[in-house]
Amino acid sequence: MRAHAGTQGNEMADRLAKEAATEDTEEIVYNKIPRETIITEGKEEELTKWQGQWTSSNKGAVSRLFFPNIKERMKTKLPISAEFTAMVTGHVFTRSYLHRFKIIQNPTCPCGMNEEQTINHLLLTCTQLEKERRIMRNAIVRTGDTWPPPFDKFMTKHIRTFTKFVNSIDFSTL
């Protein structure tokens, strides 16, 4: 004799359980998945797609140096200013940038190093920014990191120091 025999509610539960167990359906029931799970999975899928497009793009090379990982970029609160944005996008008025658009004839930095005045040059070697760079380098080395850090570390681990460096530059004199 069945354990639930004679109890109407229990018999109905047994019948429904048996139907559910033997039903041959491949239909996915989305209303059984928590809404948050669907949203999270959708965001992860879109971030993965976006990362693939970002990585394979031939545009935004300077920005990709600072922000190679979209997910990490989304977590970082950036101190937006005209100078900061110009520096991390490569649209700062360096001599190399102005030469590229045929505004000036010579892309070489006047610092005497005989190098193009690029973002890399300003951050790493320009003698006109030696004092500002020394302050930034010392602050980074004090954290235990080596100099120079990968550019993406300027945005994650050393963003305050990097921002102080950028804000200390008088771009009109370069």
How would you describe this structure in keywords?
174 residues; mainly alpha; 2 domains; 10 helices; elongated
Describe this entry's structure for a reader.
The termini are far apart. This protein has two domains: 8-56, no CATH class; 61-173, no CATH class. The protein has helices spanning 8-22, 35-56, 61-66, 70-75, 82-89, 95-100, 119-124, 130-142, 151-156, 159-168. The chain is mostly helical. It is 56% helix and 0% strand. Helix 8 (130-142) runs antiparallel to helix 10. It contains ten helices and no strands. The radius of gyration is 29 Å and the shape is elongated.
Q: Can you summarize this structure?
A:
This protein has 174 residues and is an all-alpha fold. Helix content is 56%, strand content 0%.
Strand content range: under 5%
Helix content: 55-70%
List the secondary-structure elements in sequence, H or E.
Answer: HHHHHHHHHH
How many discrete structural domains?
Answer: 2
Shape, principal axes of CA atoms: elongated
**Largest pleated sheet:** none
Separate helix tally? 10
Radius of gyration: 29 Å
State the separation between the terminal residues, measured CA to CA: 94 Å
Low-confidence stretches: none
| Average pLDDT reading | 88
Structural class: mainly alpha
How many beta-strand runs? 0
How is the secondary structure organized here?
Layout: H1 8-22, H2 35-56, H3 61-66, H4 70-75, H5 82-89, H6 95-100, H7 119-124, H8 130-142, H9 151-156, H10 159-168
Helix pairs in contact: 8-10
